Each structure stands twice: as structure tokens, then as C-alpha cells.
Amino acid sequence: MCQAINGGQWSYITLAAPPFMSVINRLQTFPTTAEQIKARVQKSDSSKPLKMKHGTKVFMVKLQVPADMSRATPRPANSNIKEAHAMMYDRERSFTAVWNKETEPEAFETFYKHLTIPKLYMWARRADDWALELCLDKLPPQNQPW
Q1: Residue 53: what are its φ and ψ, rounded to 5°?
Q2: Which of 6, 75, 92, 142 is least surrounded by Cβ atoms within 10 Å, i.e. has the fewest?
Q3: Which element (helix H / strand E) includes 60?
Q4: H-type alpha helices, 32-87
């Protein structure tokens, strides 16, 4: 890994708590009533530091954008995604956060140029309570099994 990111371009990004989060996987029954949905939804709290087990070590994150934001989705040449965002988490899901384009537009554009499908794996390291540094130019292998 050290050789993979040696001399990489690191960019400071500010994260936000997801407005809400619900964990649903393909083996579970999808909630259909308001009570079932409420029971699964967890409120996010950005007043506390983002829980993350990695400390200051470099680790891999998965960034996902809505399918309609993927570069694989055709859109008019003059379209501008102003409210773009990406959900981010690590392999163990020790944290889940959102990165909004408006916080670091230049870094987000660099990330977006690498995006050919709605997900991208990148190297990261913690920078602050709600911030990471992303390695924007040296990507890990994109065929990760998670």
C-alpha cells in the first residue's frame, strides 16, 4: 500500500452526517409500514466526532453516488450537477458519512473524473473530527469484494 500512495495528491475534505440512515440488505424484508421504517431509521448526530477505528493510518474507503449522477448515465452536455454528493464508508462500516460537492468543489470534480460507475474506492486518512484527506490521483484496485 505504501508504494501505491507514495507521492500521491492528498486533498482535505469535509464530511457531514447523513440526514438519516437505514441499513437494509437483500436478505431482509423491505419495511413497508411507517412503523417498520421508523424502527430501522437511525438519526445522525454531527455534534459528536465521527467514529472511526483507523486513527491516523491510511485506509480504503468506498464512495458511492446516486445512480443518476454516475458518468455512465447519459445527460445533456450543458447539465451541471450543483447538489452533488457521495456517501462514504470503510470496509467494516465503522463510519458512514456524506461528502457534499459544495464543500470542496475542485476535489469533488477530480473525484468525479475517476467515476465511471456509481462507486469508487480511494485511499483516505483522518484529518479532523469530520474531515478526511483523500488521495485523488493514486487509486487502489477497483475490483474490491465489498
Answers
A1: -85, 0
A2: 6
A3: strand 59-64
A4: 34-40
The residue with cell 454516475 is 70
CB-based contacts of 145: which residues, under 8 Å, 6+ apart?
Answer: none
Q: How many CB atoms lie within 10 A of CB 91?
A: 13
| Amino acid (one-letter) located at 13 | I
* Span between the terminal Cα atoms of the chain, in Å: 18
Q: Domain extents for the chain?
A: 2-19+48-135
Cα distance between residue 142 and residue 30, in whole Å: 29
Please name the residue that has the C-alpha cell 448515465: 73
Report the DSSP pairing between strands 59-64 and 85-90.
antiparallel
User: What grid cell was written down for 83?
Assistant: 447538489
Q: Would you call 67 helix, strand, or coil by DSSP?
A: helix
pTM of the model: 0.76
